[in-house]
Amino acid sequence: MNIIKSQQKHTIFGRFAVGPNIIFLPQGPHWKAQRSFTIRYSTQPTNTDPDKVVDSTSIDVHSIMTRWTLDAIGIAGFDKNSEWVTRYHNIMQASSNPVFHIFPFLENPRLRFLFPSRKMVHHELDLFLAKMQEIITHKREILNNNKLATNKRTNEKDLLTLMLESAKEGNDKLTDEELLSNICGFFVAGHDTTANALSYIMYNLATHPKVQEKVREEANQVLGNQPVDVLPTMEQIKEMPYTQMVIKETLRLNVVAETIVPRKVTEDTDLGGVLIKKGAQVQLDIMGTHRNPKIWNNPDSFDPERFAPGGEAEKVAKMGNGWVPFSNGARMCIGLNFSLTEQRVFIPMLLRKYELSLPDNSIHKDKAIFSGIGQFVPVDLQINMKKRY
Ligand code: HEM
C-alpha cells in the first residue's frame, strides 16, 4: 500500500484511494502527522446491527458484509439498493482490472479515448468523489449545527464524525483535499478488508459446525439465550475468548488484504545468517508466512485451538512474526482494533440468531475459492441462514 508510483496517479485506484497526501502514501514527517491524527479513533466499537442486513434464507455473503462494514465506518446513507453502492462496486471492480494494473500508463487522460468503457468508469468516479465531498459537507453542517451530535460520547460516534473532529484540531489540521483523500483511503482499507474477513469467518463456521456451535454457546452464555437481539458491550466482548480464537485463525488461514508488504532496509541486517544490505527492497509475504509448514503444523487446516492459551500460536509468537495479518512495525495496519472489534460484535450476534450452512451445490465445498488483486474476495459465496428466533 505504501509504494504507489507516480504513473498510477491517473488510474482508477490512484484517483480514488490515493489522492494527494493520503496516509498510505507519504513518507517521513507528513505520514507521521497523518498517522497520529488517525490512530486515535482506530479502537472505536461499532454499534451497527447485523440483523438489518440479513433478509433472506440464503445470502450472497460478500456483498452483504460489504454493506454492513460500510455502515460501520459511518459513510452511510448508502442503503442496500442505492445507486451509490452499485457505482462504488463498479469502480472497485474496474480498479482491479489486470490490464490497467500491469500497464497503468494506459489510463493517462490523453489515452482514455481509446477505451470508452474505462472512460465511463472514470466519469462514475468523478460522480462518486463529488458525492463523498457532499457527504463530508453535510456531516460537517450537522456537527456545526447540532450540539447533540457533538456531545455524544466518543464511542458512540461513527468514524466519519471522528475524522472530521480530528481534522480541525491541533497542529495537524487537514485541508479538505487531504480529508477527502483520507476518507476515500479509509473507505477502501476500512471496509472491504473487514467484509472479506467476515465472509471467510462465516464460511469457516458454515463448514465447521462444531466450531460454530461452540461460538454460539459462548455467545449465549455471555449475552443470554432469550430470543432477542443483544448488542455486546466492550466488557462482554472480552468475555468471549473462543470467538477471538476463531477470528485469529481465520485471519491466519484466509489472508484478506495485502499479502505482500514492501519495506526498504534502513541498516545492514543479519537475518538468520543472511546479510541484507542497507537500501535493499524486501517484501514480507503474509500468506506465505501463514501457510509455511516450518512455522505452523498442518497450515492448510482450520483449527482455532492453535490460539488457545498455551497453544501453538504462543510458541510461534516466541519465534517471531508468524501471525501478521495486519503486518507489523511502524506502518502496520492502523485499523486493527477497529476491525477486530467489528468482528467480535458481529459474530456472536449473528450466531445467536442464525445457523449457517453451505448450500449443497456450493463451489466452495472443498475449499474457499477466491480472486482479486491486492485483496482476496471469496467468489460468489452463498451461505444458508436458518433463523433460530
Ligand atoms: C481484517 C481487516 C484488515 C486487515 C487484514 C488489514 C491489513 C492491513 C495491512 C497488511 C496493511 C499494510 C501495513 C504495512 O504496510 O505494513 C494495512 C495498512 C493500513 N490499514 Fe488495514 N487492514 C484491515 C482493516 C483496516 C481497517 C478497518 C482500517 C480503517 C478503519 C484500516 C486502515 C489501514 C490504513 C490507514 C493503513 C495504512 C497505514 C500506514 O501506512 O501508516 N485497515 N492494513
Ligand kinds: protoporphyrin IX containing FE
Residue windows where pLDDT falls under 50 for at least 5 positions: 36-48
Give the mean pLDDT. Answer: 80
Architecture in CATH? Orthogonal Bundle
- The top-level CATH class is Mainly Alpha
The tally of strands reads: 9
Number of helices: 15
The structural domain count equals: 1
CATH superfamily: Cytochrome P450
> Biggest β-sheet: count, sense, barrel?
3 strands, antiparallel
Q: Please list the strands of the largest sheet in the order they lie side by side.
A: 1-9-6
CATH topology: Cytochrome p450
Describe the global form.
globular
Strand-residue fraction?
A: 5-15%
Estimated helix fraction: 40-55%
Query: What pattern of helices and strands is seen along the backbone?
Result: HHEHHHHHHHHHHEEEEHHHEEEE
State the secondary-structure class: mainly alpha
How does this structure look, described?
With 389 residues, the chain is mostly helical. Helix content is 48%, strand content 8%. It has a single domain (6-250, 333-366), classed as Cytochrome P450 (Cytochrome p450, Orthogonal Bundle). The chain is built from 15 helices and nine strands. The strands form four sheets. Strands 1-9-6 form a three-stranded antiparallel beta sheet. Strands 2-5 form a two-stranded antiparallel ribbon. A two-stranded antiparallel sheet has the order 3-4. It is globular. It starts with 11 loop residues before the first helix and ends with a strand. Bound molecules: protoporphyrin IX containing FE. Protoporphyrin IX containing FE is lined by residues 1-2, 23-24, 35, 186, 189-190, 193-194, 197, 256-258, 261, 325-327, 331-335, 338-339.
